Amino acid sequence: MDIAVAIVLLVLVAFVIIVLVRSVRIVPQARAGVVERLGKYQRTLNPGLTILVPFVDRLLPLLDLREQVVSFPPQPVITEDNLVVSIDTVVYFQVTDARAATYEIANYIQAVEQLTTTTLRNVVGGLNLEEALTSRDQINGQLRGVLDEATGRWGIRVSRVELKAIDPPHSIQDSMEKQMRAERDRRAAILTAEGTKQSAILTAEGQRQSSILKAEGDAKAAILRADGEAQAIQKVFDAIHKGNPDNKLLAYQYLQTLPKIAEGSSNKLWIIPSEVGEALKGIGNALGGAVSGQASDGLFGPDSNGREPATAAPAAGAVGTEAVAPSAGPTPPARPPS
Fold this sequence. Notes:
Blueprint: H1 2-23, E1 24-27, E2 31-37, E3 40-45, E4 48-51, E5 57-59, E6 63-64, E7 68-78, E8 84-95, H2 98-103, H3 108-124, H4 129-134, H5 136-151, E9 156-167, H6 170-243, H7 247-261, H8 275-290
Helix pairs in contact: 3-5, 7-8
């Protein structure tokens, strides 16, 4: 009797535990559950503690409400120019309605994959290979629009679609690499030629400006030298006229200038002008008047016998030069003895 009572109590305790387990459910955050009562949709459970009717209500597997990322395997796609390319896609989606995701579609992940493949083939089929490689943003936008519209009734929102890789055939890749290499070589040759051209232009411009500046400098230097010489001559001329020199000083300066005529190794012959005699006479008269009772020796005028000097002595330092008598001028009369 006692054993039977104990068994009944154990059965009742087990039943109560089972009822409690099936009645009390805790839904985690970012999860949602669908409750069926006697096989019919009853309600959607939100995160938190929930009480169910045991053996009447049934909780389906919880759905993840967070945004999910699914990467689909490469899909062969034929472009407009009949080239087969392999495209990998990545889809970002989120379950927004647990009831629709449960009853409107059997397997929403597989449905999104198939819909992505067919839509991708439709979009890329209208583009050639070059456009498909350079129009990823356009393809992504078209895919997202079509998927979001089609999956809306499934309780799914597609937030983003990305093309992870577009792989053309190996032969096409080799051709594209050769084309890009040729294009880079062409651009490098153009840039090199342009640089050489600019360098030549700058060099010629610099030489032209240098020649212009040098010519301007030479012209200014010549003008300044000419101005300096003109000022020097003017100063000498003014100084001479201001000093009012007499004939004796001019004759002496004239004789000092004669040796400069014979300077230089190329001077083999030089001619004494006819004015030298007049200069010598003036100096001789000056010296003769200064020394009383002294006879002239014929160097600066007539000698004591009244004879004129026949030739003039060569200038100092003119070794080996030939002296020539004055070419013009009358012979002065003999001076009477003093």
